[in-house]
Amino acid sequence: MAGNAADANRRPPAxxxxxxxxxxxxxxxxxxxxxxxxxxxxxVDRLSPQAASIAVNLNADPxxxxxxxxxxxxxxxxxxxxxxxxxxxxxxxxSKTAPSASHVLTVPIDAPFFPAALAARLQGALLAxxxxxxxxxxxxxxxxxxLWPVAIADDLEAWIxxxxxxxxxxxxxxxxxxxxxFPITATKAGPLDPFFNVxxxxxxxxxxxxLNRLEDFEL
Length: 219
Ligand SMILES: Nc1nc2c(ncn2[C@@H]2O[C@H](COP(=O)(O)OP(=O)(O)OP(=O)(O)O)[C@@H](O)[C@H]2O)c(=O)[nH]1
Ligand SMILES: [Mg+2]
Hints:
By secondary structure, this protein is of the alpha/beta class. It is built from 7 helices and 11 strands.
């Protein structure tokens, strides 16, 4: 029964993945300002109603004041081996701080328009309860928008150490998973993929334009 009080109590712990190099942006994406707000503040605001707790995965100081109520966690595997290292840090953090949680939710730092119903829909799609629930839109998987079972931490660690390219999709394929398709957001300027990804200064400009045009967009 989606949306009842019991569901609210089962909101998952969440981790914002901001531990990458931001090399295409040229500065830490957590600190980049969009619509007068840092990406970090924007993603925290979007996630807060959806999550029982929020931690931020960072491996370097982004040079902005960090929210004191959201702990910062670093990768437990050194050398910036890719996004799965952030997922692993999220799983370790959840098992320590939320031992009763079966899953942890991850969202990357660079997709400011992600769905308000992300957590609820991913959670509602779990069948046996031990799956990875992964977001899709427009026929494409968004593997860092996912609910990860805490129990797969050891397998993930072994995968990161073994798979040369630390492939995210190939790791997901090793486990039971459910795909959750999210609709396109309608805007005055046409359809917007809610997982629109801001990797470059040019995409930041595009995101500013989308922000100006958004219609019926619930923040
Ligand atoms: N913890 C951790 N997160 C990473 C790592 N590499 C990428 N990420 C995160 O994975 C997500 C997707 O990565 P990208 O969009 O390529 O971000 P990025 O690696 O910071 O940026 P580029 O250097 O431009 O590729 C972002 O949320 C990154 O913060 C890593 O080595 N460790
Ligand atoms: Mg990206």
